[in-house]
Amino acid sequence: MITSHLDGNLLTWQVGAMGLVDLPLTGHAYRAPSGEVVWIDPPEVGEHEARLLELGKPAHILVTFRDHDRAVPALLQRHGAKFWAPKGHEGSIPTPDVAFDEGTELPAGLRAIGMPAMGFGEHALVAEAYGLKFAFVGDAVFSFEGMKTPWLVKKLAFKAACGPLQMKRSYRGGDNAAAPEQLRKLAAERPDMLFLSHGHPVTEATHWLEACLK
Predict the structure, then answer these.
(1) How many whole angstroms from its chain centre is CA 113?
(2) pLDDT, tens digit, 9 for 90 and up, residues 155-173
(3) What is the CATH number of the domain that holds 198?
(4) What is the tally of structural domains in the chain?
(5) Nearest-10 crossing angle of helices 179-187, 205-212
């Protein structure tokens, strides 16, 4: 499935599922107002590739989470893109061309928000364009809306839902106690939308992020 956002300048696609969890891997192809094209947390593109390339060939591929290797190695080789990943040593990603943190100037007008308590160097990527403020998020929050995820999986692995969002009970490689405060950092950015790496895009994003913190 592929959906269009930001006046056609962001395409989001979903493929596969994580084992029995039935939560697809979600990727994003974003064209900034400058014309620069980046892909974020991309899984396999499959039949979607031609449609994604209508935005332009990706000059950069970024991951928000150091365990999001997904289809990154194959896509880097295919498109010759520059690879950006959060600083750190954990995870299964290839060695990045640029290891970034909050102080790094990113392509396409993106800005990194460090959330390492979520594990594996998690950084949300925030931008403001096309009349909206939005953030690309790795594993900080998930959305199960429209998914057939078993009730027991959600009960055991995730906290109670706050609207369309759910936080994990345990952040692998992170700090569970510090995770809520780092989510507060993202909420303080006042995003209108969240583009998740697991689940559909979420509107009224600040409202739902704050609901998760109550």
Answers:
(1) 12
(2) 777 888 899 999 989 998 8
(3) 3.60.15.10
(4) 1
(5) 160
